[in-house]
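Appendix B. Raw example, untouched.
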Amino acid sequence: MDDKDLKIFQMLLINNRVTHREISEKLGISVTSVHRRVQNLIDQGIFSKFTANISTGYLKAIPVKVIGTSECTSIGCCTSGECTAANGCMKKISRRDYVEKVYHFGSNVTITTLLLKGLDELGPAVEHVRDSLEIKKPTVVLPCRVTSANTPIHKKYTGTAPLSKLDFNIIKAFHEDARKPLKDVANELDISVKTVRNHFDKMVEQGSIELGTNWKPEKTSGIYSVVHIDLNPGSDKNLYIAKMSQKFGPRILVSLEASNLPDLIVLSCWSPTMDQHVGMVEEMSQESDVALAYSRVIRSTWLFNSWRTKLLNDMCM
């Protein structure tokens, strides 16, 4: 991967329906080159699916990340998204329908992404992750801002009216392939392309549809890591993120800030070699605003269908 691949990666995270021509114009390369690069990301297994779902904001759901060091020995026998142990940790954690992703890093660190229906689920959900992955001291992170290339990955929900049955059917039609042409959805639903476009564009504008990308960072050719930055109290997080983005460009793929940990920044990063990864983390830690910086390199990723996928299917019946 080079800088152009990384920029394409970011553009697809922000808008998985961005066209090859739009990417071409943005990066100043040919459409043919863009097509080849996108296809390579898919062929390598980095991008496994471009999805659509009911947005977190519309559902008033609460995204949560639980971070901790696992003492579960069966993580090592869980490969390619499958757990071979009948009662392994991934089997256990997947028994709750609020679990969406589990990332496994070096030193057996895990980051589990949850989607909760309400705050009353937070305590039991954290306990479930703790017990399933055998984490003694889990850290709970409530994301409040997630960006790529200084752009929010998901729009805030600004709508007021509930989604219609047709809206749900359109989301469902895009659910497994959000890059599907509008005309294909129109044919599936036996409606006009204009109707699909009007409903889809309105949902995008209001933030009631969430366009996502299933990706497995361990499939990249370089070093994918998550860098945890603890800033000194009162430091300007936006200024720090902007400075790092200026310094490292698209090698910082995603940045996350938390509402419950005001001095924490989590950066998802890519480097071509381990030496360059170590150098990047050292540079990040040397900034005067930084109290502590440490990183973990990805090993495996597991993706699960949560309750909102079932809800979408139910709304379309």
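End of appendix B.
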